[in-house]
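LOG
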Amino acid sequence: MTRQLLAAAALALAFTGGHSATILAQNSAALEGRVSSAEEGLMEGVVVSARKAGSPITVSVVSDEKGHFSFPSSKLVSGQYALRVRATGYELDAPVSMDVVLAVPALADLKLRKARDITPQLTNAEWIASFPGTPDQKKFLYGCVGCHTLERIAKSKHDTAGFLQVMKRMASYANNSHVERPQVRVRARDPLRNFGPDFEKQAAFLATLNQSAGPWSYALKALPRAKGKGTRVVITEYDLPRKLMPHDVIVDRDGVAWFSQFDEQFLGKFDPRTLKTSEFAIPVQRPGFPKGTLDLEVDPQGNLWMSHMFQSGIVKFDRKTEKFQAFPLPAGTVNDDSQQSMVGPQRWTVDNKVWLNDAGIPGVHRLDMATGKFETWRPYENLPKGPHSVYGIYADSRNNIFFMDFGGENVGKIEAATGKLTLFPTPTPRSRPRRGRMDDQDRVWFAEWRAEKIGMFDTRTEKFREWTVPTPFTAPYDVALDRDGKVWTAGMNTDRVLRMNVETGEFTEYPLPSPTNIRRVFVDNSTAPPTFWVGNNHHAALVKLEPLE
């Protein structure tokens, strides 16, 4: 033990350049060190991850401007840890493992070298940045990353005709599919409807990006790494026990995480303290249709509600009895295209009515809980033909519903008392608003997926505000406002979580340690500062991000 202490002290002195105030004296870290490379010297923004042998937990931190990283002693236990890094274009010079004894801070000097093959490291945003073409020309690729990464396209060898056949096959798959587990629609849509009128041009463009004509003619680009406040963070990844697809993740007042399962009929429950995962089977309503749920919401009584996707309607989970109650669409309303991806029970006790969307119309239904009757609105039926849909839906304090026109550019409103429908176009055309939250001031915060912006619509003044996210091709998916007035979002392309100061408009970007297909974002306001949660929809993990300032 004495030799360990002397070695640790010597390395700490090396890190501080021989100053008398060593890291050991300043820090209660369980594991710390520095990261450097021959090309850059000391490196900022490198994600360093530690995983104890046999554990489902990976803890990660980020190196600062001096190349220094530090794992708080509260985040690790004694044992042997394998270390890995994430910094596009670099890899560890050799495998590294460390013995951590909490009474003796461990120190690591990580040396990085240029990666032999950068392609597995590239995020979707980095692939898009590397591809030739204009941003508008490349935006249709956002629709591909729900099922697989863009590396699959870049490494393919299809010509234009081959891509047309691939696109037809993709259009036959249900939304809740993954590259390893596709689900086929009962009634296939117009084979190329999802790709729009330019599908032939898109197929030809894809054939210029891949290896059908030989090696790539373009350079592969890495985005700038995180810096400054973005390095002040601890990230914990909890691997789930099997290949689940946790789409929406929320945390209750007891610190327990609940998640919807995107391609199976289960509600998931995960306790971070015991690492126990439980699954509650959801009754199947339509055996021949794709399985899985999407939206997960809490009602005023503390019960959980989920949208039932292609299984029809919505589902309520009673937290006390742990029983489900299904509310399928009635005969005459349900059809082969019916798809409920969102449910709005946030204020249903105001008038005893619950809202739900229907992507198959597209439109909105409202269920009267007393009578079981459904009402339906088709907000776009009198508009010129165009790409419109209804996605995120959020009830205000009077149970008026506000919805996102994910196909177009509107925030819609249906008045609970009168049924009056109004569409409010976002300041940015073709913004494709996706998901968000209603705050306690009846303001809707939402992500403008195609416009690379965060939006806010004040439902009382009927005014918009917009903020552009800092990194190109982020594709923000969802937005949440925390108790401190900070706005959180994340995209499906960059593997980064963003926090914005509303007063200044300043963004902080936190890098994630693993490729993460992000959907619903959640902020736990019971911690100080608030903690961010998200599911990794493609890699069966829950991710907790704790900012340190």
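LOG (cont.) second protein
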Amino acid sequence: MKRSVIYISASALLIGACGTGKQTKEKVAVANTSIDLSNFDTTVVPGNNFFEYVNGTWLKNNPVPSTEGSWTNFNVIRDNNFANLRSLLEQEAKSSNQPNSSEQKVGDFYAISMDSVKLQKDGISPLNDEFKMINDIKNTQDLAKLLAHQHSIGVRSAFDFGVGADPKLSTENITTVSQSGLGLPDMDYYLNPDPSMETIRKQYIAHVTNMFKLMGEPEAKASAIAEKIFDFEKQLAKASMTRVELRDPKAQYNKMTVKEFTDKYSNFDWKDYFQTLGVESKINNVIVSQPKFFAEINTITKSVSLEDWKNYLRWNLISTSSPKLSDNFIMESFNFYGTILNGSKELRPRWKRAVQQADASLGDLVSKIYVDKYFSSEAKKKVNEMVDNLTASYKERIETREWMGTETKKQAQHKLETIMRKLAFPDKWRDYSSLEIKKDAYVLNYFRANNFDFKYMTDKLGKPVDKTEWGMTAPTVNAYYNPSYNEIVFPAGIMQPPFFDANADDAVNYGGMGAVIGHELTHGFDDQGCQYDADGNMKNWWTKEDSIKFKEHTNVLVNEFNHFAALDTFHINGQLTLGENIADLGGLTISYYAYKKSLQGKPEPEKINGLTGDQRFFISWAQSWRGGFRPESLKQLLKTNPHSPNMARVMVPLSNMKEFYSAFNVKEGNAMYRSEKDRAEIW
């Protein structure tokens, strides 16, 4: 199971340390700016559309920029981080750094990614050796070796190979193979008969055609190749699990010995594949995440001609590489993936794309120079205090769950107590001494970095799981929960204004960062996380009766989101988004009670700008998720993303909280009103 990530796609959180509710004059002055009333649309009744009430004017004044498919406060903070990283990377790129030093690797990676003259001159030539390897395929053994090579450099053809903690034995690493290989965002894009999907399919085939034309193929041949590639991917799509099915970790735990695996799918030369990866002697067992999909891989290994396989491999190579090549390839890729699928009208500046890739490819190298320059240890201390308070609040809430029996509560408390927290950045940085970064080609450095990460991953085989590892870089403005490690992780990127401010009002703190912390804690007890025990093993710790009651409560949330129309007739998939929706409702609820607990029994602090503490708490939540989407981006989110759109993330949880009703006098007749019997209350 992949880690659960909050993806804070819109944030306006002015967050500070937990306190007693007392404010100095200086703090009140700062707190007065934490909620900007000019962003409100006071023509909207709070109980009808709280999202618009709090954010309406902000949305009007902050349209989605031409370079984006959506625009939220998250984008603002991300761009601020990128600007900070840019200054650091440019400094290293201009310096005469010692060969093979961290500074040399960071500087040269960024410098060559920004060298537009060289990128234009080189065109597609850096891929010549890769194309030769594909063209030299003569049999299925060569095919297996080539697929292994592509996987090792970050080209995701046909299927995925990974190494990580065994879901049922979280202290041991194991190999997992899983479905992949699609050029469109989801299987639904290949199979849904809706006319809008048919239009995208035609545009996709045209895009593939254009790419092959850029590679030198005549138009007629390029078109024929594109049609066959689409048919190939459609076969994979038909055998793939749906997004909802992929949320069931038990259905994806199909453990086999290597012999069982290779015998069952014997058309594919797994021995050659594993040998090429250098892992044959290390693999004892394999988890096959989607057996139906690998049965299809087994079939098409023989039924699809080698020539068609070669074209499919060429397509995946060029599609992966295009953003790191000359402008003709960059723009063709952007026109389809950026404009048609995401709605963006203009390509983001080269420096932003280069910074983002440096962060993704060089991980800890970039993270270290970032935290050395921009991170304060005081922020880590304050966030740690908030985690303490949220955990204490959660402990009390578990005991009040009338639907949960004593034994299950005991296990839940044990799991809560053992959740590991990682804040800001790793205690130990990775060693990058074996990674070579050259000045030959941007795309080749990209492949080298991917290969370095791949070898780092495969080297875990035969070794115990290292639960000190991080799954995000330090500059990332995000957070996640990992069920196999039973951990919550908050990178440094989120611990800064407006996400983190020690002077912000406590009510705003808890409505913002507190709810983020509560969200991640709740992922340990959502419909997926609850299937893992305190040690990170996929193991049932529920009584049968409590499991049934839990599902009854979560089904209420599923139905609520199913009825939420996010765009015209496009509704949210309540089952796909269930885990994130449980985490939002649970996180906000837990944080509300942690806020009340922080007052230590004292009266509510005085109003600020005419707003009570409870009102500021809920306004902060609504500010957190403000943001707008282009229709194309929103449609893709609804089909592929386990997170609900921002407006729903604000309104649906609030419509289930009696405390919100009291704070804003929500009554029957208001659009957000639900009768008590129809409200969801889980954690």
